[in-house]
Amino acid sequence: MELSDSALSSISSCLLDSDCRVRLLSFELTSLAAVTPAALLRFVHDVAPADIVFRMIRGCSQKHFGSEMCQFIATRRFFSVSELVDVESNDVPLSIDDVILAQLTATTFQIAAPNLITVNGLRSFIRDLTDEKRQLVAGRIQANFPLDNVTFPTATHAKLLIKDQKTIDISTRRTSEIPSPLNSSPEEEMR
Fold first, then answer.
1. CB 92: neighbour CB atoms within 10 A?
2. Among 36, 86, 92, 139, which lies 20 to 30 A Cα-Cα from 62?
3. Distance (Å, whole) CA 126 – CA 120
4. pLDDT tens digits, residue range 12-61?
5. Alpha-carbon distance 185 to 8, whole Å?
6. Which candidate, 10, 8, 39, places its Cα nearest to that of 25?
7. CA quadruple 10, 32, 52, 127: dihedral positive or negative?
8. d(Cα 61, Cα 140) in Å, to the nearest integer?
9. Domain spans of the chain?
10. According to the model, what pLDDT value does residue 175 have?
11. In the Cβ-directed half-sphere of 7, how many Cα atoms lie within 13 Å?
């Protein structure tokens, strides 16, 4: 099925008419060339998935992933956005900036497309993790700047891994949640 405004409208009508709740909405290996940014935004708002994925999408424009769409995506429980290209196969940037990153409520996410996040915005996000102002299971951010010489706040419950100089993996696990073999039995660890 070719994605279009009318196709998205039909799909959302079916889901809404059947009183269906969508856990995962995944757009993969498709084109948004015939979909207007307004129709795409209306569709995701109507369907309101818990988790959302945009991966290997062609025919995009920056308007498809403007501020309002990125704010919506960042409030899902899980999201992943990667490999967005326009009709000429140029990378399409997300409008995720420091403000949207600071408002992010997802507990698991991947931002693997060009974005507007700055060094200070990334530091602030990680500082919120170290100050336990934010809950996170795991996240991956592809930066638009080299991460080699960037210093980040540290915390005992956050793990940072810098890969390929531009990708940072972030994971957290509270020390109280980590089973200790000295203090617990195998049965307690299984709970």
1. 20
2. 139
3. 10
4. 999 999 988 999 999 999 999 999 999 999 999 999 999 999 999 999 99
5. 52
6. 8
7. negative
8. 23
9. 1-99, 118-177
10. 39
11. 10
Q: In this structure, are residues 62 and 30 in contact, taking their beta carbons and an 8 Å threshold?
A: no
Euclidean distance between CA atoms 158 and 175, whole angstroms: 10
DSSP 177: G
The token pair at 106 is: 């997802």
120-164: pLDDT as tens digits = 999 999 998 888 888 899 999 999 999 988 998 876 778 899 999
Question: Any bridge partners for residue 102, and if so which?
Answer: none
111-114 long-range contacts (CB < 8 A, ≥24 apart) are: 111/81, 111/139, 111/140, 111/141, 111/142, 112/80, 112/81, 112/82, 112/83, 112/140, 112/142, 112/167, 113/65, 113/81, 113/82, 113/83, 113/84, 113/142, 114/142, 114/144
Q: Check residue 178 and give its pLDDT.
A: 34
